[in-house]
Design goal:
11% of the residues lie in helices and 59% in strands. By secondary structure, it is mainly beta. It has one domain. It has a 10-stranded antiparallel β-barrel.
Amino acid sequence: MTAVGALLALAAVDARAQSVIVTIDPAQSQGLDTSEIQSGMEQAISDQLQIGDGAYLDSVANAVAIASRGMGVDYATNPTTFVLGGAIGFGAASQGITLSAGDAALPSAGFAAAVSLMGGVNLGVLTASEDSALDRFRLYANGMVYSPGGEPAFDPRLLTVGGHLQIDLVRRSDLASVVEWGGLAFTTGAEYTQLSMGLTQELPIAFDPARWDATGSYDITSSVMSVPLELSTNLRVFVVTAFVGGAVDFMPGTASSTVALTGPLVADVGGTEQPIGSVSVTHSDEGVSSAFTPRVFAGGQLNLSVIKVYTHVNVGLNSSASIQFGGRIAL
């Protein structure tokens, strides 16, 4: 086989919506198992960059949807005047629910973070009556744009904006001097969440004894519009409140990715690292969120006078989950 023929024999093109081309120069790779390097590098690229399975982007969209779920609403305080606060949350979906990437450039399952500020008002403040029907209604708004910065290979940008209406179907009541039942509340509204990530630096991907130093572009974008229908209740005992609820989320959303990466392939040849070829990857894919998802949620809040510190957990029946931590000032 000629040198040209050998070069062409080591070019792999996937029939799916991607192309992974590994080119190895026989003159520079003497003593190496080039076939093993080729197949191993292709697998490492698929694992590290999550381009081998279109279901990955479905899980990204579901993670984006659940990461901020409940951030814009107070389920524990039953405010009679107003509430102001903020929270940070982390969501994951599919394939075992992992909250980190580990050694991979991207998590093996969909992952998203969310940050949001929120404010709410009890409509009863619009009347002078202490027993107004408007006291059953609370309006909330939340939103924030956040880019954490730092030095990750993929730099995320987060956007959350939403509005909600909460209605007391059953009014709250005092069960004892330090015990209050929050009644039964119905909450609905709309929330838009978006996650965008782009490769910001050279990304090394290794398969011993070779390493590919990838440069170029890799962009992931997911946008989800959610409309929740929720029932919730809470119980306060002295300074601790527990809340629980169930919901159905209508959340049409999409996720997409585009990849155009190239770079040298280097390996240890006779104890010296040197170029033995190159790798290029082009790829595009799309995913969708679950359109209709039942969900349960629960959490706890520590009430320090008007200052509230809380945590909130969501579990969706589409193999998604999230956890949030936040604080509020409420009256």
